[in-house]
Amino acid sequence: MALAARATQNFVPIKEIRNGIVVLKDGGLRAVLMASSINLSLKSLDEQNATIRQFQSFLNSLDFSTQIVVQSRKLDIRPYIILLENRMKEQVEPLLKIQTREYIQFIRNFTESRNIMTKSFIIVVPYTAPALGPASGLKGLTSIFSSKKKTKVQEGIDFAEKQSQLEQRVGVIQGGLARMGVRSVQLGTEEVVELFYKTFNPGDPTGTVKFEE
Fold first, then answer.
1. pTM of this prediction?
2. pLDDT in tens, 13-58
3. What is the CB neighbour count within 10 angstroms for residue 177?
4. Are 5 and 200 in contact (CB under 8 A)?
5. What 8-state DSSP symbol labels residue 27?
6. How do beta strands 14-18 and 67-74 pair?
């Protein structure tokens, strides 16, 4: 099992997750945003066209690449059923207990007969520091900081500089989405870990990543 886990990690280019930021093995950084959705079907035709144009303008305004991920998963109703069953046990009134039991059965039958899906909208914002060559005039300084063994102070300074650049890109993304009426929030370390865990373990119902109002 240990060998299998190690082999799997070799295919994942993630070195660590620090301050909610994914640090890749090649030194690149990735911020992960969770975005809300817009129901175009509830809008008029003019509003739909305006929203599409705004989204097109938003994409054209970016001077860096970004990744939009849409995850579709079958709704897991088990935690909700367990909650209802616990409340049913606490019921004192017989009539309320019967009604709760019938409601639980209705929910089970409804979810089993229909393929109810949940969608998560995720935006990955990247940043990779540009490589400095000899022509930059900083060859001596570059050779010091590009050594394989950096001190903790040097690594901290390097990460802080990259994080600052990444946060500027995150601000651009969130500002563009907000102008379209799309709310977004940057995930923290625990939420990013949970997101990756659920991505690689889709059958495990434990844990959820929620968008806070």
1. 0.68
2. 888 899 899 999 888 999 999 999 888 888 899 999 999 999 999 9
3. 20
4. no
5. S
6. unpaired
